[in-house]
Amino acid sequence: MTLATADADGRVSARIVLLKGVDADGFRFFTNYESLKGAQLAAHPQVALCFHWKLLREQIQVRVEGAVSQVSAAESDAYFASRARGSQIGAWASLQSQALPDRDTFERRVAEFEKRFEGADVPRPPHWGGYLVKPDRIEFWYGAKYRLHERVTYVREGRSWSKGLLYP
Ligand SMILES: Cc1cc2nc3c(=O)[nH]c(=O)nc-3n(C[C@H](O)[C@H](O)[C@H](O)COP(=O)(O)O)c2cc1C
């Protein structure tokens, strides 16, 4: 999904992340808390998500907006433990979003962490974990011929949702 974030000055930034789970609480993804997005989420804990299915019907788009918070350490630990060892090492080795002088520097860091954790389980780095997006607005966009698309919105009102339509 596309994840859009903003910094305290309103500068926005968007990138793809893996939707790791969705349930009644919201949408979950995992990342480096010290990355650009992590810094933006700390400064401005509101996000927009966007999904696109090109091959369903006449295309479908789902847009989500809401507040974001970090998931529990236990939840991050559980997901981290399920990841491939190479990804676990990568989470330690990558200073996500910081300038990297050359590829060798990164590969050296990967080798260093492989050595550090040799013969042992790789613990979750403290700077890596999940976020939960609690939606307060969701829009389903259904493509239709001649651009007569359908847009259905759900806006959270307290504990319920109000449904509406928008012109395409
Ligand atoms: C298909 C795809 C899936 C990705 N999934 C993730 C993810 O789950 N978590 C993550 O931190 N980055 C993921 N990335 C990398 C991000 O797009 C991005 O490059 C990285 O998180 C750094 O973003 P930032 O500098 O804005 O913080 C993914 C990229 C692609 C193309």
What do you see in this structure?
The structure is a single chain. The protein has four helices and nine strands, in the order E-E-E-E-H-E-E-H-H-H-E-E-E. Strands 1, 2, 3, 4, 5, 6, 7, 8 and 9 form a nine-stranded antiparallel sheet that branches. It is elongated and about 60 Å long. It is α+β, with helices and mostly antiparallel strands and about 170 residues long. Strand 8 and strand 9 form a beta hairpin. The model has no long low-confidence stretch (mean pLDDT about 95). Flavin mononucleotide (FMN) binds near residues 17, 18, 30, 35 and 96.
What is the average per-residue confidence, as pLDDT, rounded to a whole number? 97
Bound molecules: flavin mononucleotide
Number of strands: 9
Overall form: elongated
| Biggest sheet record | 9 strands, antiparallel
Termini gap:
22 Å
Percentage of residues assigned to helices:
10-25%
Which structural category do the helix and sheet elements fall into?
A: alpha+beta
Number of continuous helical runs = 4
Strand % is: 35-45%
Order of helices and strands, N to C?
EEEEHEEHHHEEE
Low-confidence spans: none
Radius of gyration: 19 Å
Topology:
Elements: E1 2-6, E2 12-16, E3 21-23, E4 26-32, H1 36-43, E5 46-53, E6 60-70, H2 73-82, H3 85-93, H4 103-116, E7 128-142, E8 150-157, E9 160-166
Antiparallel strand pairs: 1-2, 1-5, 3-4, 4-7, 5-6, 6-7, 7-8, 8-9
Helix pairs in contact: 3-4
This protein binds flavin mononucleotide.
Flavin mononucleotide binds next to strand 2, strand 4 and helix 1.
